[in-house]
Amino acid sequence: MPAIRHSSKRKPPPDGFEDIENDLLIFSNKMKDAQNKPPPSGPRHQAQWEIFQISHQRSRYVYELYYEKEAISKKLYDWLLKNGYADAMLIAKWKKQGYEKLCCLRCIQTKETNFNSTCICRVPRAEIKGDEDIEHDKREYEGDVDGGNTCKFK
């Protein structure tokens, strides 16, 4: 039987959490709505698309606050990652060269594809035949400045 967590044993959030708490609460409410929504008729994996989108947006929000805007402290950033407010593994990939615009970790997992390859969004735009936009997993991929593709959720 798993241990019961009591709120009295959790550490309080560090200073600065009050400034971003409302934004994180909005993401939390969106996530609850997406989880409680009945699944769409169609392929089973489509039911998770909105959840992936919200998770990506929330993680990107925390990433930008810490790395780009430098609006939160390291202590608050670590606390947010530890308490599940952002996806630490996805943020770790964003810090690596070539993965700055990665939409989710599923795009680089080769075991989830039929041919043990990465997602189409990881293929440089110049190497894709045809001019049309690529649609995959309800994300639209558009070429960016350096010739690569970027995942854009619809």
From TrEMBL:
Record flagged with keyword Nucleus: yes
Keyword Nucleus (UniProt): yes
Region (Disordered): 1-20
Cell compartment(s), UniProt: Nucleus
Basic residues bias locations: 1-11
Keyword list, A-Z: Nucleus
GO cellular component, one term: spliceosomal complex
GO BP, one annotated term: mRNA splicing, via spliceosome
UniProt family annotation: Belongs to the BUD31 (G10) family.
Protein's UniProt name: G10
Annotated source species: Fusarium mexicanum
UniProt lineage: Eukaryota, Fungi, Dikarya, Ascomycota, Pezizomycotina
